[in-house]
Structures are given as structure tokens and as C-alpha cells.
Amino acid sequence: MRVITLAGSPRYPSRSAALLSLCQQALEQRGAEVIPWNLHNFHPEDLLYARFDSPALLALKEDLAVADGLIIATPVYKASFSGALKTLLDLLPERALEHKVVLPLATGGTIAHMLAVDYALKPVLNALKAQEVLHGVFAEDPQITNYDRQPELSPVLAARIAESVDTFWHALARRRQPLAAVV
Ligand SMILES: Cc1cc2nc3c(=O)[nH]c(=O)nc-3n(C[C@H](O)[C@H](O)[C@H](O)COP(=O)(O)O)c2cc1C
What whole-number distance in Å separates Cα of residue 133 and Cα of residue 96? Predict the structure, then answer.
């Protein structure tokens, strides 16, 4: 299995990126190949000026084309996902997530915005034709400590992440393959 992780925080290190690192470890223990991407792989001007031919964007599109799944993480900014992440998603082809299973993760300061993934991010993932978008995980800031070194999760969050990785893994196994890959 080949999985892309995409960290959507303008900051690094970051809490949402820390969640992705933990997911990566869990998937690699199962034998998956995980290719980590984050916004810092892109020149800000390429995103702001919508340079569809920038080398980093072309490389991400190539990685996505051969991936089985995507785990995408974002901080909640102003009750939505980060605007910086949107500048990148805007540049992906219309069917960039076709045939892929997607697990969305979000971190935020208040549970009042825990539905941001559902009402803001999921519609965009669906617009990119994701085959299956799984239930997301929302983490409140105090549930993630030490995220700039060795991230530690509260027991409740750790259990939710473990369960979500497990669900993601099973969804990858049953996903509908592109026709070209079957014949
Ligand atoms: C500009 C900005 C806007 C934010 N807006 C919200 C918000 O509307 N709702 C919320 O729950 N948290 C909000 N937060 C808090 C972040 O979502 C939270 O600290 C998050 O965990 C940061 O993730 P990161 O470390 O991956 O960047 C905001 C933070 C910043 C810097």
C-alpha cells in the first residue's frame, strides 16, 4: 500500500503534522509505504500565484497518481481548514483523489469547531472525487503535547487515532481499483 500524508498547517512543527507522523509510524509498522508532504515543500509564491507547472506541484501530483490513500491534516483557522492548504488543493486536478481513500484530521483550540472537517474540508475532498472519505478525527490542542519533539497524545486521542488508522487500513484493502490496475 502506498499512502500520502499531507500536512496543511502553515506552521512547522505543528500539532496537526505531529498527528500525521504518528499515523505514518503506525502504517509503516503494517508494511505501508508512506510519503510525507507538507506545505513547506512548496514555494509560497507558487501557491499564491497558482503556478500549475511548479516542480513541487508536479511531483505531488505524480505521487498522488500512484497512491492508494491520503491522510490530510489541518489546523482549524477561523472555523474552517487552513487557507494555505486551500491554495494547494485548488491547484490539484479535478480527479486528483479518484480511487483513493482519504482520512481527514484536524486540530483546533475549541471543540466548538470540531465540525469544520465535515462542513469545510470534506466537500473539497469530494470535489476532488475521493472514492471514500472516512470519519475524521478532531483533536483539541491540550490533547497533543511535546509536538515539536516527541509528540504525546492524551489516551483518548491516541485511541481514536489508532482506531482511525485501523479503519483506514481496512478501507485501503477493499478500495475499488482503477480499471487499468485490475486488468
Ligand atoms: C490564525 C489562527 C486562527 C485560528 N482559528 C481557530 C478557530 O477558528 N477555531 C479553533 O478551534 N481554533 C483556531 N485556532 C487554533 C488552531 O486551530 C490550533 O492551535 C491548532 O491546533 C493549530 O494547529 P497546528 O499546530 O497544526 O498549526 C486558530 C489559530 C490561528 C493561528
Answer: 14
> Which of 20, 77, 82 gets mutated to test ligand 1 (max ligand atoms within 8 A of its CB)?
77
Which 8-state DSSP code applies to residue 183?
-
pTM score over 0.85: yes
117 lines ligand 1 (CB under 6 A): no
CA gap 181, 183 in Å, rounded: 6
Q: How far is the CA of 9 from the centre of ligand 1 (A)?
A: 9
Atom of ligand 1 nearest to the CA of 17: 26
State the CATH architecture for 2-176. 3-Layer(aba) Sandwich (3.40)
pLDDT value of residue 178: 72
From ligand 1's centre to the CA of 78, what distance in Å? 7
Assigned C-alpha cell, 40:
513547506
Whether 72 contacts 164, CB under 8 Å: no
**What is the structure's pLDDT at 175?**
82
Mean pLDDT to the nearest integer, 119-144: 98
